[in-house]
Amino acid sequence: MSTRRRRRPRIGCLSLIAIVGAALLLALAVLLRPRSLPQPTALAVGAPAAAPRTALRSPASFMAIADPRARSIALFREAGRVIQHPRCLNCHPRTDRPTQTDAMRPHMPWVSRGAGEAVLPCATCHHDRNVEAAGVPGNPGWQLAPSEMAWQGQSLGDICRQLIDPARSHMTRAELLDHMATDDLVGWAWHPGGERTPAPGTQAQFGALIDAWLSTGAQCPA
């Protein structure tokens, strides 16, 4: 008894192309179908975050401290917010190598305090003003503080005692006040350019604190 083989259905080329084309059109339609935009959500509004205190207190705000010595120390502690700020400490390094940035990283390129032909003067890179395009700070008097006035790693009390010691500060008290209150290089700390954080307050506020501190006996924290 003979059996007939069933013929398998065959799909012609035109039919195959039509199926593939239809599938592509369907996929394209799915991708391009209109979708609803996400609805805007209201931002939660809470109390504003407390801004860091950048202003310096005035000398008058310390008048409630009756003890002159305690008031003098309190005035210097407020001035210390500037003295111990990276804008000042970077040029008062503990070694002969200055530091830079708020993190007080070692200066790059590598430079060191010294004298002689092998030393690269600060003015080679630091000109009379900030160069914003290169991110290099500058001032006509750009230089490191004397090594006797190293502040990094010192307590505020130790820095205070350095300042009032003419053998280390190389200044009389009148010259110290003039340096702090009017020196343009000190004033750079409030106009550092770039993304550098300025010192707290203003140079005028800082000078007023130093003046009041000296007038109350220039007492130092422990």
UniProtKB/TrEMBL annotation:
SUPFAM superfamilies, alphabetized: Multiheme cytochromes
InterPro entries per record: Multihaem_cyt_sf
Protein name per its UniProtKB record: Isoquinoline 1-oxidoreductase subunit
Organism of provenance: Sphingomonas spermidinifaciens
